[in-house]
Specification:
mainly alpha, about 325 residues, about 0% strand
Length: about 325
């Protein structure tokens, strides 16, 4: 038991290191210069229910955080790395590894690339050919993973786990994508404004999210006008923003029978560093600092309540088991 407990803490420590590195990469990728915003980015990533729930599962928390780290780092290298071999080969390896550990982290990579390009469009630094290459690398990685997965199933004579209906992945699912688009928007609304995925209404997170959304839209409009962007940039920004729920929930497009769970919604976390990256004045900055600080506070309360409830449940279960053994 002591040996097992040691490994639990080691895995937890390694998981936190990977989350910390992912935070640093996000801060660098979105060029968040303000120290307070950097701290808030790290804090929201640690306390958000998506990550805290992942850390609850001792037996798979490390593989899941490795998958999350791989999803973030792959896009970071695609954008930042100058060496064309490292820029191509390493991201493919990281993406295939990430998908092999947890397929639901595919939206993390896709959403991060989309948000980065929205920021580049706002700054009039968008490079179409470069983005097309990056998207092609993601597609190649997904296809390579799919081939390796099928080969593994064939050689080892095993099937995919049916957890949240993940085994339903097939070419037919891709053909059914148009029917799933509406579902991605419904899930997007559920995540921020209902209690179906996160507990929002009890601690007024839904109100905070509505204000964040309004301020974000106002700021995007302001930046679009202020930067005097070309028409093509404006069109692309509008298109990417309006279709954002599809990228964040893209796992539902290729696995239409899957049910969105908290652990599958990690791509939503990326919206916070994106919001910080496009702050342009003191008023906007103060509003976001206050709102994100409130979210961090609420998430911390939720995390502790969850941990305490699980501890009480564990103790009751253990007590009942001991009574049964004694009898």
């Amino acid at each position: 038991n002591v040996f097992i407990n040691i490994f639990v803490y080691v895995f937890l420590f390694l998981s936190l290191i990977l989350i910390a590195i992912s935070s640093i990469e996000l801060i660098d990728l979105f060029k968040i210069k303000n120290k307070l915003l950097q701290i808030l980015t790290c804090l929201i990533l640690v306390v958000c229910p998506n990550i805290s729930a992942t850390l609850l599962f001792n037996y798979c928390s490390l593989p899941y955080t490795i998958a999350f780290f791989g999803s973030i780092t792959s896009i970071y290298l695609l954008v930042k790395e100058k060496n064309k071999y490292l820029k191509t080969l390493i991201p493919i390896i990281l993406l295939v590894t990430s998908l092999s550990m947890y397929q639901a982290y595919l939206p993390v990579s896709i959403t991060l690339l989309v948000l980065y390009n929205i920021k580049e469009l706002l700054n009039n630094n968008f490079k179409f050919k470069e983005t097309l290459k990056n998207l092609l690398i993601i597609i190649i990685s997904v296809i390579l993973y799919f081939i390796l997965m099928k080969l593994s199933q064939l050689v080892l004579n095993i099937n995919m786990s049916d957890y949240t209906n993940a085994s339903s992945f097939s070419i037919n699912n891709i053909l059914n994508i148009p029917n799933q688009i509406i579902k991605t928007y419904q899930v997007f609304i559920d995540y921020f404004f209902t209690n179906k995925i996160l507990t929002n209404t009890n601690i007024y997170n839904n109100i905070i999210n509505i204000i964040l959304l309004i301020v974000l839209v106002i700021n995007l409009i302001y930046l679009t006008i202020k930067n005097n962007l070309p028409t093509i940039n404006k069109v692309l920004i509008i298109f990417l923003v309006l279709t954002l729920p599809m990228y964040i929930n893209c796992i539902l497009l290729i696995m239409p029978t899957a049910t969105m769970q908290l652990l599958m919604s990690s791509a939503y976390i990326l919206l916070v560093p994106f919001l910080f990256s496009i702050e342009n004045n003191k008023i906007y900055k103060v509003i976001f600092i206050v709102l994100i600080s409130l979210l961090i506070r609420n998430y911390t309360v939720q995390d502790n309540a969850t941990y305490k409830t699980l501890e009480i449940t564990h103790n009751k279960t253990l007590s009942i088991a001991n009574d049964i053994v004694d009898e």
